[in-house]
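Proteins fold reproducibly. Take a sample protein:
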Amino acid sequence: MLKAVIIEDEIHSLKALKLLIQDFCPELKIVATASSVHKGIQELKNHKPDLVFLDIEIGTGTGFDVLEDVKNFDFEVIFTTAFEHYALKAIKFSAIDYLLKPIDVEELQKAVHKVNKKRDVLSQNQKLVTLLSNIQSSNEQKQTIILSTSEGYEFVPVSDIIYCQADGSYTRFHLTHKRELLVSKHLKEYEKLLVDHNFYRIHQSYLINIAEVGKLIRTDGGYLIMRNGDEIGISPKKKEEFMALMREF
C-alpha cells in the first residue's frame, strides 16, 4: 500500500479528495494532510510518503514553494488545481500528472494506477528538478521538455529541437546531432506546448523551431531549409503569416 499526503488549503476540496481516495483507491493510505506550505513541508519530512497530492495554489504560497524546500524528491507528485493555471503548461512540459477540480473519479484512478505501476523515484526526481528549473527560467529556448518514448523518458533541451513531424498518431522529433525520437502523442499536443517557445506550425505535418531555420526559399511555392539541411514546405495558408513572423523574429 502506498502512503499518501494531501496538501490542499480548501477544506471542501480536501474532504472531497479524501473521500474519493478512501472509496476508489484502496492501494492508497492517507497518512497526513496539510493546508499550508509550512505544514506541508513538515508532513513530507515526517511521513516520507510515496505519493503527494499537491495543490498548485496554497494560501499565500504555491506547491512549488513546497518542492523548493524539500529538494529530495523520493516521492511521486500529482498536482491539483481548480482552473487552467498558468503553470499547467510547465507541468505538462515536465510529463507530470495533474488533476482538475472537481476531481473526476476515473482520472484519479488512472493517475494513481500510473504511479503504482511505474514508480521510478529517480525519474520522478529528475522530472521535478526539471519542472522547477523551467519555472525559474525566463529563456524559453533554455528550458527542457520531457518526452515519453517506448524506452522511457528523454530530457530534451528545447534548443535541441529542429522540428517536429506528424507521423500518424505519433510525433517524430528531429533533434540536433541527427537524433530522432518518436513520441506517442499527436503533433497538436506539442504545438500547444511549444508555441510560446518560438515554434510555428508551418504545415499540417510540421512544427518548426524558428531559431533553426537556415534559409527561406520563395520559389517553387516556398519552402524552408532547416539548419540540418532538411527541406520543409510552407502551407499556402501559412505563408503570409509566417513571412510577417520571420520579419519580427
Summary: The first helix runs from residue 11 to 24. The helical segments are 11-24, 37-47, 63-70, 88-93, 105-117, 121-136, 187-194, 239-248. The longest strand covers residues 28-34.
